[in-house]
Amino acid sequence: MTNDFYYSEPSSPQESQSPCIEDQITTHSLLDYLKEELRSVEIADTQHYKSERVSNFLQVPLGIEKVINFGSLVCLDSFLYTFTILPLRATFALLNIGKTLNASQKADILKMLLFLLTSAFLLIYTEPSRMYHGVRGQDNVKLYVIFNALEIADKLCCSIGQDILDSLFSRTRLTQKPSTTPIYLALAVIYAVAHSLVFLYQLVALNVAVNSYDNALLTLLLSNQFVEIKGSVFKRFDKSSLFQITCADIVERFQLMLMLTIIACRNLIELSGSNFAFLPRAFIRSNTQLETIFSPVVIVILSEMAVDWLKHAFITKFMHIRPSIYGRFVDILAGDLVSTTKKIGAPVDLAPKASRRLGFAAIPLGAFVVRVAVQALGMLSDSSSIDECATLPPSALQRGAVVMQWFVWLLVCVVGWLVLLAIKLLLGIRLSAFAHHRQAEAVARRTEDVLTNLQTPIGEGNEDKDDRIRSKQHLSTRIDDVPNAPTGKIPLEELSRYDMVKRIW
How far apart are CA 172 and CA 199, in angstroms? Predict the structure, then answer.
């Protein structure tokens, strides 16, 4: 028995006859093999781009939070526009009703009418308390189905509703085809009511999950959020799809924050006692009630942030996209805020242009908030009681109390509206200044973005590049395409959330 052995690649009979192959057959002893193992260098050739992947992975949360925060402020600006600027514009348009109204004034009147009709329907035909107890009586499996069904319904309603509203408020329809306006107004009312009901049921389901005693429903809600990672990460995306995902995350984050704020305020009113004050008892007595109210809210928000971070970090890692792309997304949204060009047939309201790109439904969400706010005001008014030991007659006491109560609520509404108007104006000024500042520096960033795109993608060698080009050439043949089908890629600057690129988010 010998300590030598032959180490060679398997060869065919033709290769065994070749002298070059025979020269490559070498003999190694066990000692030589051990020396090779001890002296071998195991530093990977891909270390340079692997470190860049890790660095980009850690930079994604900061980049995605910047664009989500900016987009959320844009949604807030459009949301406040519905309550503050739109009533003023509609009032000024109604004052000129005897004169010839332009397309913008007609659109303002129609939007305010749509908002009032939707709010009136919700106030008359919906009862959130009954909806809450109806959803609360369901088991966990049904609630899981309700969560997913409402999420799908929200996306479908927003997709079709955006087309309906753009058609209703288009300059061409308001000036050249006014006879079809009632038809589209009826469709818009149906859509707005349906979408508002979806928002209302989402609030009820979220309230049931947050206020569950055993936290089982809250765990179900958190698991439903993390399922989103599975549905998004293990797919191929490009920059257009990533932009649509970002738009969807912006709207989802804003709606979730709004609903959680409403739930926290309702719970604070219910737990602060019968005698309501501007400083609730929870602040004075102990922090137990505050922990009970806000701990589930904070958990849901933090889990949503973690899901967004992980989702975008892995998407950019797998698709070899650098975090600088999120700065480009901010530039696109900022460009919508400073755009002043008006195309033929385009909607006349350019203020919420960025929110339309995001797919944000301001009117249904505003009507939904009106319904919830009226219920909250009713809860506050029920907390006040009449002194039964008063010396005045009950009828006179009741009349005086009712008049004073209506005066107080009217004063509160006026002051609240003025506060919202001030916030809207300050927010609009800051967003406009930031957008102009971003656009002034956008040229340099676009040049840098072009240079970045010309670089070799992260982790792609020459062989991988040749394979990618070869596969693209084979797949780009037009033999299998439908004749006269629309072709071409939508530019990123013209892309909105509900344009079909690969899928709708």
Answer: 31
Q: Residue 411 CA to chain centroid, in angstroms?
A: 35
- Could you write out the three-class secondary structure of 80-140? HHHHCHHHHHHHHHHHCCCCCCCHHHHHHHHHHHHHHHHHHHHHHHCCHHHHHHHHHCCCH
For 466, half-sphere exposure in the C-beta direction (CA atoms, 13 angstrom radius) is: 2
Tell me the whole-structure pTM to 2 decimals: 0.77
Cα separation, 15 vs 79, in Å, equals 76
Q: Domain limits of the chain?
A: 4-39, 61-383+403-453
Cα end-to-end span (Å), the chain:
68
Residues sharing a CB contact under 8 Å with residue 117, sequence separation 6 or more, in sequence order: 189, 192
State the pLDDT confidence band at 24, using cuts at 50, 70 and 90: low
The sign one gets for the Cα dihedral 58, 64, 67, 68 is negative
Q: What is the pLDDT of residue 2?
A: 46
Q: What is the pLDDT of residues 123-135, one digit of tens each?
A: 999 998 888 888 8
Encoded amino acid at 477, one letter: T
DSSP state of 29: E
Task: Using the structure block, give the residue that is written with the tokens 């006859």.
Answer: 17
CA distance 479 to 160: 33
CA nearest 65: which of 227, 308, 303? 308
Q: pLDDT tens across 284-308, in order?
A: 444 567 777 888 888 889 999 999 9
Sign for the CA dihedral angle at 304, 305, 306, 311 comes to: positive
Instruction: At 27, give phi and psi (nearest 5°).
Output: -110, 130
Higher-pLDDT residue of 7 and 92 is: 92
Q: pLDDT tens digits, residue range 190-211?
A: 999 999 999 999 999 888 888 7
Q: Which amino acid, residue 272?
A: S
Distance CA(301)–CA(252), nearest Å, equals 11
